[in-house]
Amino acid sequence: KMTQQMRDLQLAQARKPPGPSSPNAAKRLYRNLSGKFRVNYTSFDEGSLVGRGEKEKLRKSYLFQSNAALFEAVELQDLDRVQELLKQYSPEELDLNTPNSEGLLPLDIAIMTNNAPIARALLQAGAKESPHFVSLESRSLHLSTLVREAEQRVNELTAQVVNEAPNADCSEKEKQLKAWEWRYRLYKRMKAGFEHARVPDAPTNVHLSVASSSSVQVTFWEPLSVNSAVVTKYKVEWSCSPTFSPPLGEAVIDKLKNLHFTIRGLVSGTAYYVQVSAYNMKGWGPPQASVPPFAIPSNWREYDGRAPRRRGQAEALDHLLGQVKTVHQHCVCHEPCKNQPQSRKHSVSKSLKHLFHPGSKFLKTLKRGLYLTAIFYKDDNILVTHEDQIPVVEIDDTYSCLLMQDFLWFTKVSCMWDEILWLRQCVTVSQSSCSCILQTRFKMLLAISQMQGLLGIQDLGQVFFEPVKDKQGNILIVTLKEVKTNQTFESVRWVPICKLQTSRKSVSSPEEPTALDTLLISVQDKLAYHQRSSYALSPGLYLGYLKLCSAVDQIRVLVPERLPNILCHVKIRSNPNISREEWEWLQKMVSVEEPVPAEPEAETSQNHLFQELQVAIKELMTLVNIPLQEAKDFRLYSQEVLDFGGQVSFLLLLPPSDDVCTAPGQNNPYTPRSGFLTLPLQIFELGEEK
């Protein structure tokens, strides 16, 4: 235990921070030096520092000061300073869970002064309560001791100040007296806070749901009244009996950022009861049973024993592709690429030979034809050629085939950028005997190879959902890719997008811009589309709206601009799983002939899903600008739940069968508000797969 003289010395040398007088600044160093209450204590005396670098000594000293500053901020109830320190330092650097010389942690002080905002900030950072308070009696005794010692020290210093003549020592004693008076008041406030506190009420909104065939999830809110003491942890208990006798298990939750817990390793088809209780410094409060009172682990597939739609499909496709490659290794179509005779070389057109000539460069201007352009961007910069042009290569200068068919084929090729050489070898045939479509697709592969070679990059990114056209007959197929790292390239360089747009001199009129000018004007919109296409939904169950419209050569699907890779949707809940009981209820609901089926029984998972669906349908109808009364003719797709990776699932809401797909020329009275676009169905499918 530190001697009284040592305490006086550290208080005399302390720097006083602005605000109320406090001995903290001086005491914090000795809190780290004192071994009275510390766990795994290591002495930092002068001898142990011998041989260490000055930098290491400064670092440790700096961390000691940050620990002292945190105690100071908590005691002065300075929330902003506490948050600043928690953001600036890690819990380990702050020594967040090591008791000081008074046996207290920052969280103890925040709790016993009933400072809920600071206590929550500390809890979210991983703060714990002091391990020395193993019982209510030990905490009460410890606080009484701190109050008594502080009071005794105040009395001693008061007597010294009164009896001594005014001098420098007396002035220092007065400063110590003010500091100890402040600490005495702090300890008294902590003791009063502990004595007046009671155990917390039960948590509220305890909801139980089925998370999978072997797990259930419980979510809950804080108690309405914490009885003047901050809740520091929760306990989740589960059992197969409604009386919880015998209990099957329990879990203590002390990370309070998200109040939920998933109970795993359960038996499918067995009912489990769950209750939750809260804890503060006075102990555990009463438990609160969940709503519904029990849950049965299951999944909607168990209703009819259906296997996952995509089980083994990816592996089967990889195996099939491997077989095709094996068969083509010795195919005669590969011979021209391996050992092409001189006569064969002369039979290839000059335009094709030019693509592989070392002098092949990016195009500066467009003539009538089909072209490929690749947009690589990083932050606000874009890759351009040395002539400050977006990289463009020619595909076909005599293009006259069906654009949409070839474009959709190109988008599929974009899934195999690394296999372009192999695809070229497979498509290589006599140019005089092949069809227009085959010739165009072969030229597409050649253009891809040329772009890859000039840029030195295999992956050209994602294809933009529609080509860029102009009235001069030029067509641009655009690929987009974001570069995450700092890369340098030989034939291209980085320039700011705004600089490129302002410095480029247009060679066309505003009334009839060329495809390149149109691309440059709209490049930010295309980059925004590309970024939004990679966004992922947060885990949960969603209600999606399927609306198609057909044209002569394609079918398009309605999607939101903010997430063009997902159908129009609203979130139903955070739990993506549909239980067997919920799916069985949905099957009954969609099969009844009455317009409005009877509501399920209260306090069941089916009733909760029914209420969630009602809210979601209203929100979705508002989103897509359809009057709610029209929704009575809509249907829920009841064949399956669309599952995306196990964390995101969809229920589909369908218009009447005659309105699912709008035909060309058919009037659609309910046009969605701004913020939507229609994508070709094949493009949407590729985006959804990615």
TrEMBL record:
Q: Which InterPro entries match?
A: ANKFN1, Ankyrin_rpt-contain_sf, FN3_dom, FN3_sf, Ig-like_fold
Q: Which Gene3D superfamilies match?
A: Ankyrin repeat-containing domain, Immunoglobulins
Q: Which GO terms describe its cellular component?
A: spindle
Location of the region described as Disordered in the Swiss-Prot/TrEMBL record = 1-25
**PROSITE patterns (alphabetical):** FN3
This chain belongs to which protein, by name? ANKF1 protein
Name the source organism.
Answer: Oceanites oceanicus
Parts forming coiled coils? none
- Please, which domain of life does this record's source organism belong to? Eukaryota
Q: Which Pfam families match?
A: fn3
Its BP terms in the Gene Ontology are: establishment of mitotic spindle orientation; regulation of establishment of bipolar cell polarity
- The Fibronectin type-III domain covers 202-299
